[in-house]
Amino acid sequence: MFEAVVAGATDPQIEGVTLVRRPALTVSPAEMLAADGYLLGTPANLGYISGALKHAFDCAYYQILDSTRGRPFGAYLHGNEGTEGAERAIDAITTGLGWNKAADYVVVSAKPTKADIESCWELGAMIAAQLMA
């Protein structure tokens, strides 16, 4: 799923957009401030976002709160059971930040299908296309 999102976001037809990939445990508030948009990916273990993604937001939330309002984001989630709690967490955090949900979440249960992978590609392309200069 990650590779498909990256492939969509780096499609040759998308110009003027640089994709920066950071693991949630290492992304800094400064890097989040420098970004013009966001693609969030997380497993939905135990019905919630990963601890790593939660940690990233815990460390950066108040530092980025006023400066990132209105920025577009998209998200993809993978869970073997319900993802509703993870979706609610992303909604709550990004609503608080004032981010603009620029695409429907890609939510996958069990093994990703070809259609799921295509949806991930489209998600990456859609968010990156919105950022073209």
Q: What this model shows, in words?
A:
With 133 residues, the chain is α/β, with parallel strands linked by helices. It has a single domain, classed as Flavodoxin domain (Rossmann fold), CATH 3.40.50.360. The protein is built from 5 helices and 4 strands. It has helices at 2-9, 29-34, 51-64, 84-97, 114-130; strands spanning 38-43, 72-79, 100-101, 106-109. Strands 1, 2, 3 and 4 form a 4-stranded parallel β-sheet that branches. Helix 1 packs parallel to helix 5 (114-130). The radius of gyration is 14 Å and the shape is globular. The two termini are 26 Å apart. The model has no long low-confidence stretch (mean pLDDT 96). It comes from Nocardia panacis.
Keywords:
133 residues; Rossmann fold; 44% helix; globular
**CATH class (first level) name:** Alpha Beta
Helical residue percent band: 40-55%
- H and E string: HHEHEHEEH
What's the N-to-C terminus distance? 26 Å
| Total of DSSP H or I helical runs spanning 4+ residues | 5
Q: Using only CA atoms, what is the Rg? A: 14 Å
Number of domains: 1
Mean pLDDT: 96
Strand content: 15-25%
For the biggest sheet, the summary is: 4 strands, parallel
Low-pLDDT residue spans: none
Query: What is the CATH superfamily classification?
Result: Flavodoxin domain
CATH-defined topology = Rossmann fold
Which architecture name does CATH use? 3-Layer(aba) Sandwich
Overall morphology:
globular
Structural class by secondary-structure content = alpha/beta
Task: Give the number of DSSP strands.
Answer: 4
What's the topology here?
Blueprint: H1 2-9, H2 29-34, E1 38-43, H3 51-64, E2 72-79, H4 84-97, E3 100-101, E4 106-109, H5 114-130
Helix pairs in contact: 1-5
